[in-house]
Amino acid sequence: MDVMEAIITRRSIRKYSEGQITKEQLMTIIKAGCYAPSAHNRQPWHFVVIRNKEKLRAIAGFHSYARMLPGADTCIVVCGDKERQPQTGFLIEDCSAAIQNMLLTVHNLGLGAVWCGLYPVIHLTRGMKQLLSLPEHIIPVGLISIGRKGEERTAPDRFDKSKIHYEEW
Amino acid sequence: MDVMEAIITRRSIRKYSEGQITKEQLMTIIKAGCYAPSAHNRQPWHFVVIRNKEKLRAIAGFHSYARMLPGADTCIVVCGDKERQPQTGFLIEDCSAAIQNMLLTVHNLGLGAVWCGLYPVIHLTRGMKQLLSLPEHIIPVGLISIGRKGEERTAPDRFDKSKIHYEEW
């Protein structure tokens, strides 16, 4: 799929049909995350892959916007390493760029995904740290719920020229 | 360009050749930013386009990682609106996803760009707010320096399987 077509037609997909994503698809998605830009090229991300249904249900239990997770095939929790990038703001930016690469790649593979925020909501990051036994210096930034598409969504017109300013506000 | 090819081959470009990017290219780049996902679909971003050489030099004067700016054709400062998204963490995530869409689109157009961080470095956000007369509720998250490519950079191998964890850390 062409880059611009992927960017324009990508939508959040929260309903999934039966069927697994393949190991090759999973690696392609994570690889795309690894190729994001990062401050000082520190690549401070980690990826925790969750397919265990009990764990997916546990996340849905404490994350009210991730209630679709038990219906998904795979959840990838994108985490940032504070030892590698102590500036938390940059860590969040780097992991967000990685997530966006991954969402575009999921769409390119014909699969569906939605990004559910974690950081900086305390009960969500705490819940995830406990569930995944994350070390203290690892921040769960966001999760991606992925599966075979169970819905089709069309692209809205989001190009809003009123958001553009020239030379100053 | 195919999505995956764009993701893999995109590099930060800091050297530019003479020549302007067109109005159509500029609109395409900003449009890509507008199609990023955002928390609760609030689309809290704004784009300040700077082409004035004095302003580009002024930014390079206070941002030590943006010294290439006077050689660039265009700078786009991606800002987040705190009134639209009061949760700053989400605001940063949304704007970062927009920036990544824009970087991929620049690359797809055959142009070169580099993302220079602003938030949360206080002297950078303050300097930018003053220079661009940004209102109090508008946070400059990052800037993109864009121009015709003056260097070619090859893609490194960034896929690091040691960053992948299964079911827990």
Give the number of DSSP strands of chain A.
Answer: 6
Q: Report mean pLDDT of chain A, rounded to a whole number.
A: 97
Number of domains of chain A: 1
Q: Which CATH class of chain A?
A: Alpha Beta
Number of helices of chain A: 5
Radius of gyration of chain A: 16 Å
Biggest contact: A-B, 68 and 68 residues
Order of helices and strands of chain A: HEHEHEHEHEE
CATH topology of chain A: NADH Oxidase
Q: Measure the end-to-end span of chain A.
A: 36 Å
Largest sheet features of chain A: 5 strands, antiparallel
Helix content of chain A: 25-40%
β-sheet strand percentage of chain A: 15-25%
Secondary structure elements and pairings:
2 copies of one chain form a homodimer.
Chain A: H1 3-9, E1 16-17, H2 23-34, E2 45-50, H3 53-62, E3 74-81, H4 88-108, E4 112-117, H5 122-132, E5 138-149, E6 164-166
Antiparallel strand pairs in A: 1-5, 2-3, 3-5, 4-5
Keywords:
homodimer; 169 residues; alpha+beta; NADH Oxidase; five-stranded antiparallel beta sheet; 5 helices; globular
